[in-house]
Amino acid sequence: MAIPESRFQTMKMKMKQLPSFPAFFFSVLLLASASLQAQTTDSASQKAAPASVLINNARIFDGNADSLSAPMSVLIEGDKIKAIGASLDSPENANVIDAGGRVLTPGFIDCHTHIMLQVTQMEGLFSDEFAFAYRSIPTAETMLMNGFTSVRDASGNSFSLKAAIDRGLVDGPRIYPSGPMISQTSGHSDFRSDADKSQLIGGGKSTFERYGMAVTADGRTEVMKAVRENLRRGASQIKLAVSGGVTSSHDPLYVQEFTADEIKAAVQTAEDYGTYVLTHAYNPKAIQRAIHAGVKSIEHANLIDEETLRLMKEKDVWLSPQVSIYSYYPPGFDADRKAKMDRAFNGLDTMFRAAKKIGIKKIVFGTDIISSPEQVRGMNHEFTHRTKWFSNAEILQQATGRAGELLALCGKRNPYPAKLGVIEEGAYADILLIDGNPLEDIEVLTEPKKNLALIMKGGKVFKNAIE
User: Fold this and answer.
1) Is residue 25 part of a domain?
2) Can you say whether the dihedral through the CA atoms of 387, 391, 396, 397 is positive or negative?
3) Residue 268 sits in a domain of what CATH number?
4) Would 27 be classed as within a structural domain?
5) Pairing mode, if any, of strands 52-60 and 71-77?
6) Which of 125, 166, 224, 292 is the most buried (most CB within 10 A)?
7) CATH of the domain at 438
8) pLDDT value, residue 281
9) Residues 447 and 366 in one domain
């Protein structure tokens, strides 16, 4: 089944058609390569943040409002916002930035990404874990330069990359790692080939598992152990696959994965550590089973129905959908996976219209970008791809204030405990200054190199095109 040409016209896809789905184990090489980069790069990000930064004459989108403020000033001290007002005194030795009437927003948040999966499928088959480590560095840098100051890594071995970014060795967004996605045998992340022997007769793990991208677990005991292993590594939250997927070959979209008892085991273990479970899920039965088991965030949900959306609203569960990723076939997709992609794409309209009708507000922004650093440069097109169903203000809220609320669900596991996604006193100083008004024309965000005049994360300026 071919994708209608109108899909590409409607979506205005400007990204290259590159595939994905390897696996990896993230090693000490990342820190070594990052250290070399830190020694040889003379970027502003390698310099210590000034004690104070004062931004004047900025029209503020605070992450939750529907409109911009009058021209205001924002004072940053250290890594947080100290004060907001119509006129603020400049502290001694502060770095003063005249926004010139530009729009000031919180840094963007991608709630569903795979920051380590930036290789093609063929590269994944023939690369070692070191290749994934090297690729992750430009990926992280590109995401930050696209304006994304925080991401929720929805599955993968991103723990060392997070540590390198937090230590200042690599430029990149804050990472909320989930660790390897947990799947049942013959589930969404069981990427063994048909030539691989069954593990029941001595077969080994897939490359996907060996590199730390995913783990298979069956039964309550194995699921609990897999969750605990991820938490031991530093996972902020836990990711399960509870239905079939588009990219996987052995599980149709209608399949329910994991029993209710297995999902409850994951939820119980995560809650014992003060955090929550998010689930890859497409069909209504799988989503309902996950919700009744206590899952707090549903990823994708393209085939959901009104009954299940009403249950989500009743149980206060978050909806984390993506649009752009369904607008093209990755090279190498066979007829079966193309058919699944078509069905998932066609379900988007029904899902979003029903969600709007029911009044679901807990919807966040995500891209599910997986393939290459080049592909990541086009991730901002997700902003325009949502305009069929949402206003510009709603889309910006999904990528800022709403997303920040979802990240905070990890409670005491939160590696960044101050507020994210908002412009308010005490929040992290993750700030963008934008040429153009995205509330009027959100397409300005699809050209971040041109239109993001300033990128700040934690009070530190990573880009300043104003001076």
Assistant:
1) no
2) negative
3) 3.20.20.140
4) no
5) antiparallel
6) 224
7) 2.30.40.10
8) 98
9) no
Give the rounded percent of residues in the chain with a pLDDT score beyond 70: 82
Q: What distance in Å separates the CA atoms of residue 298 and residue 334, rounded to the nearest whole number?
A: 27
Residues 210 and 88 in one domain: no
Structure confidence at residue 119 (pLDDT):
59
Question: What's residue 202's pLDDT?
Answer: 65
Residues 201 and 157 occupy one common structural domain? yes
Are 239 and 385 in the same domain?
A: yes
Q: Could you give the 3-state DSSP secondary structure of residue 357?
A: helix
Are 211 and 241 in a shared domain? yes
Q: Is the pLDDT of residue 46 over 50?
A: no
Structure tokens at 85: 């007002």
User: 98 and 116: one domain?
Assistant: no
Whether residue 193 lies inside any domain: the answer is: yes
- Does 29 reside within a domain? no
Q: Is the pLDDT of residue 2 over 60?
A: no
Contact 303, 256 (CB under 8 A): no
- The whole-angstrom separation of Cα 344 and Cα 453 is 36
Judge contact between 177 and 236, C-beta under 8 A.
Answer: yes
Q: Look at the block and give the residue holding tokens 């290789």.
A: 119
The better pLDDT of the pair 232, 127 is held by: 232
Secondary structure, 3-state, 291-338: HHHCCCEEEECCCCCHHHHHHHHHHCCEEECCCHHHCCCCCCCCHHHH
C-alpha torsion angle, residues 385, 389, 391, 396 (rounded to 10): -50
List the structure tokens of 204. Answer: 């080994």
Determine which helix (DSSP H) or strand (DSSP E) holds 115, and give its type and residue range.
Answer: none
pTM assigned to the model: 0.89
Residues 6+ apart with CB under 8 A from 442: 383, 384, 387, 392, 395, 396
State whether residue 465 is helix, strand or coil.
coil
- Do 316 and 455 lie in a common domain? no
Q: Do 209 and 189 sit in the same domain of this protein?
A: yes
Cα separation of 420 and 440, whole Å?
A: 24
Q: What is the pLDDT of residue 90?
A: 94
Whose CA is closest to 399, among 359, 351, 355, 432? 432
